[in-house]
C-alpha cells in the first residue's frame, strides 16, 4: 500500500474479486497481497464506522487481543467487539490514513506494521492522532483474519502530517 493512502477510498465492488479470481490467465495472489487486503478491510471498517465490517475482519476466538491507544489490553472476541462498538457509537466520523506499511508472512501467521493518522469527529469537536500499529493475522479456513491489533500513540505535533 503506498504511503499516505486514504484507506476508505476506492472500495472494490464485491463481484470484482470473483471475476479476477475466475480468470485463469491471472497469476496467483501472493500471501502478502492477501494479508494486505485483510489489513485494508480492517481500516475500511474503521474508516466507515462499520461494526459488521469489523466483525468480518476478526477471528472470533477467546484468545484474540486488542490494545487501543491509551487503553488496557482487551482479551477475547466479545471484549474486542464491544470496544469497537463503543468507539463507533461515540464517533460521528473517522478518517484513517495509513503509511509506512510493512508486511511479513510466515506460514499461517502474518503481521503488518504501519502508521495510522486517525482523525475522529465527535459531538464536541475533532481530534487527530498518529499511531504506530501492529496487526497480527492468522490464516483460518483459507482466509486471513485479525487476531491482535496493538496501537500506540506516536509523539507528533498537530501541524505534522504523514507523508
Structure notes:
With 163 residues, the chain is α+β, with helices and mostly antiparallel strands. It has a single domain (5-153), classed as Nuclear Transport Factor 2, Chain: A. It has helices spanning 14-22, 31-48, 51-57, 77-89, and strands spanning 5-6, 65-67, 74-75, 93-106, 109-122, 125-140, 143-153. A 7-stranded mixed β-sheet has the order 1-4-5-6-7-2-3.
Question: What is the terminal separation in angstroms?
Answer: 13 Å
- Strand-residue fraction? 35-45%
**Helix percentage range:** 25-40%
* Rg from Cα: 16 Å
- Number of continuous helical runs: 4
Low-confidence stretches: 1-20
Class derived from helix and strand content: alpha+beta
What is the architecture at the second tier of CATH? Roll
Task: Summarize the helix and strand pattern as letters.
Answer: EHHHEEHEEEE
Identify the overall geometry: globular
Mean pLDDT: 85
Across the major sheet, the strand order is 1-4-5-6-7-2-3
Task: Give a concise summary.
The chain has about 160 residues and is α+β, with helices and mostly antiparallel strands. The protein is about 30% helix and about 40% strand. It is built from four helices and seven strands, in the order E-H-H-H-E-E-H-E-E-E-E.
Amino acid at each position: 500500500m503506498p504511503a499516505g493512502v486514504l484507506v476508505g477510498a476506492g472500495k472494490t465492488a464485491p463481484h470484482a474479486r470473483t471475476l479476477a479470481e475466475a480468470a485463469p490467465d491471472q497469476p496467483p495472489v501472493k500471501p502478502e497481497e492477501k494479508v494486505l487486503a485483510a489489513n485494508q478491510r480492517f481500516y475500511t471498517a474503521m474508516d466507515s464506522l462499520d461494526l459488521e465490517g469489523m466483525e468480518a475482519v476478526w477471528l472470533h476466538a477467546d484468545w484474540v487481543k486488542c490494545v487501543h491507544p491509551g487503553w488496557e489490553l482487551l482479551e477475547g472476541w466479545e471484549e474486542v467487539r464491544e470496544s469497537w462498538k463503543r468507539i463507533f457509537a461515540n464517533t460521528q466520523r473517522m478518517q484513517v490514513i495509513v503509511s509506512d506499511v510493512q508486511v511479513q508472512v510466515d506460514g499461517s501467521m502474518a503481521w503488518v506494521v504501519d502508521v495510522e493518522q486517525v482523525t475522529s469527529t465527535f459531538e464536541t469537536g475533532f481530534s487527530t492522532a498518529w499511531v504506530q500499529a501492529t496487526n497480527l493475522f492468522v490464516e483460518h479456513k483459507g482466509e486471513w483474519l485479525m487476531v491482535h491489533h496493538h496501537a500506540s500513540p506516536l509523539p507528533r505535533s498537530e501541524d505534522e502530517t504523514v507523508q
